[in-house]
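Hi V.,

Quick status before I head out on leave. The structure for the redesign project is tokenized and pasted below; the design run finished overnight.
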């Protein structure tokens, strides 16, 4: 992560904290997801298979926020684990085992804030029935999601796997494919499978979506097509 990205992340964290405290609102799950992704990116190391990132994340919340999520912490943890798996796979990161997110109370943390500690951990030693993972390959829990011939979006010599329909594309961390470029809207577009073919659909972006140089709202995709997301060009590979 370069200095500009670090500065932008610092400003983003400051704005999140200031807004939460000013409005008196509770911490939002999307804020936890964004923090987890930032910690994952910051804790990279080099392994035999490439870039290794932590797979176990301890999330420390204020007592008020911890109690606010009472009854939903289990499902929220599973969603965050799935989110970390998607992001890791898209960015070519590897984990020694499946992602694990655990919530804790910390009396020193203010409402609306959080802290994250990350480490590498053998999860299957605690759960013998858990599947073995040598790299991040998140489970596809959507039965309609394609399971063979997985297509990809290629940007900057990096492939982003399209794992389900719809696959949402944008700048924010809650998208399935995250493209960190200012030309891309927070929630820019999505690709969906209809009648056996893939389509690209603009979802109200600021700078628009184009296919092979032509502005579109929705259009079918074929391998090699060039999709412009506000000027950022990706290639559809199927």
């Amino acid at each position: 992560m370069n200095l500009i990205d670090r500065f932008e992340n610092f400003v983003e964290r400051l704005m999140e904290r200031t807004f939460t405290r000013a409005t008196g609102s509770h911490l939002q799950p999307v804020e936890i997801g964004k923090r987890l992704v930032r910690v994952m990116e910051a804790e990279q190391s080099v392994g035999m298979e490439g870039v290794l990132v932590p797979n176990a994340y301890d999330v420390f919340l204020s007592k008020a926020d911890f109690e606010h999520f009472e009854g939903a912490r289990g499902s929220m943890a599973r969603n965050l684990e799935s989110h970390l798996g998607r992001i890791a796979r898209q960015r070519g990161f590897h984990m020694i085992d499946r992602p694990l997110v655990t919530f804790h109370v910390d009396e020193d943390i203010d409402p609306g804030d959080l802290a994250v500690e990350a480490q590498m951990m053998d999860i299957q030693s605690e759960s013998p029935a858990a599947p073995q993972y040598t790299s991040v390959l998140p489970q596809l829990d959507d039965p309609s999601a394609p399971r063979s011939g997985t297509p990809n979006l290629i940007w900057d010599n990096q492939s982003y796997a399209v794992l389900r329909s719809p696959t949402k594309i944008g700048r924010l961390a809650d998208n399935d494919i995250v493209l960190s470029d200012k030309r891309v809207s927070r929630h820019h577009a999505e690709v969906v499978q209809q009648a056996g073919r893939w389509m690209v659909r603009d979802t109200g972006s600021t700078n628009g979506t184009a296919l092979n140089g032509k502005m579109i709202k929705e259009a079918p995709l074929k391998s090699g097509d060039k999709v412009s997301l506000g000027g950022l060009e990706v290639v559809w590979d199927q």
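Above is the designed sequence. The chain has four helices and 16 strands.

G. will cover questions while I'm gone.

Best,
W.
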